[in-house]
Write a structure and sequence with these properties.
Blueprint (H helix, E strand, L loop, with lengths): L2 E6 L5 H12 L2 E4 H9 L5 H9 L9 H18 L5 E4 L3 H4 L7 E6 L2 H12 L3 H23 L11 E4 L5 H12 L8 H22 L8 E6 L2 E7 L3 H12 L6 E3 L3 E2 L5
Parallel strand pairs: 1-3, 1-4, 2-3, 4-5, 7-8, 7-9
Antiparallel strand pairs: 6-7
Helix pairs in contact: 1-8, 2-4, 3-4, 4-9, 6-7
């Protein structure tokens, strides 16, 4: 009953692999659009949510803070969607968005350039040169996105439990490999895993509510949870904002205790 995330470059076979695994294991197949739709229920633009998952913010981007809001909503939506296990997510940075939860099976799939070009040409009706430019630009954006937001190299194999290369194996063989690994004891969705996922869901809910609330929407926080005890870290301008943080967080179902000891006010010169 594991949760599986699949990281891939554009047209590397990630969607087909996810669908194969889903069918073989009887898992739900979850893609980016499902998460975007769920996050957009809070009244934000689906297009902007997609951009938040794809385009790296620049240092001159006036909407960097809005990306924080969108990513808070996306993380909350994804953790809710997979909270009971038996799910395969193929979308940008699922393994990073679910970091802090239970040990999920983190898969990366890579494919030869010719494989990717043929898929891009067929699906997007592009010339070979146009397809190469498209894939190169998408890969660069994803690499910058993960580096900027998480400080990691998108292609670092240490971020994954397994890296599959389609140079000498086909998608069926790759699918069988992942299914075999998913059945191993270390990836079982035990009671401890469920508790860790519930903690991640609660923390994500609190963070999303703080990002949405008018009184705290301009602030950014790190939120963790353990058995209903929620710990919020970050900076708040003063006592009024700290009081609002407490009011908003305590209203989230599941919060039984709140720790704001590391919620500090900025020091002004």
């Amino acid at each position: 009953m594991s949760v599986i995330t699949i990281s891939r470059g554009s047209f590397s076979g990630g969607k087909m692999l996810a669908e194969c695994i889903s069918k073989a294991l009887g898992y739900r197949c979850v893609d980016r659009e499902v998460i975007v739709e769920r996050a957009a229920a809070h009244g934000v633009s689906q297009e902007e949510l997609r951009d938040a998952l794809q385009k790296p913010p620049s240092f001159l981007d006036r909407f960097q803070h809005r990306k924080y809001l969108y990513l808070a909503l996306i993380q909350a939506a994804l953790s809710e969607e997979v909270r009971t296990g038996k799910a395969v997510y193929h979308g940008n940075a699922g393994h990073l968005l679910l970091k802090g939860g239970p040990h999920i099976l983190r898969v990366r799939i890579i494919a030869p350039v010719d494989f990717r070009l043929k898929m891009a040409q067929a699906r997007l009706k592009l010339s070979r040169g146009e397809a190469l430019d498209y894939i190169t630009a998408m890969d660069q954006d994803r690499r910058k996105w993960t580096q900027y937001l998480y400080g990691v190299d998108w292609g670092d194999p240490a971020l994954y439990d397994i890296v599959l290369n389609l140079e000498f194996m086909d998608l069926t063989e790759a699918c069988n490999t992942v299914c075999t690994l998913a059945r191993q004891r270390c990836f079982e969705f035990t009671g401890c895993c469920q508790a860790a996922m519930n903690d991640l869901v609660l923390a994500s809910r609190v963070r999303a509510e703080l990002a949405l609330a008018h009184a705290t929407s301009h602030l950014e926080f790190e939120v963790t949870a353990k058995d209903g005890s929620v710990h919020i870290r970050g900076k708040a301008p003063g006592p009024r904002e700290i009081s609002e943080v407490r009011r908003i967080a305590e209203a989230v179902p599941g919060v039984v205790e709140l720790n704001l000891d590391e919620l500090t006010s900025p020091v002004h010169a």
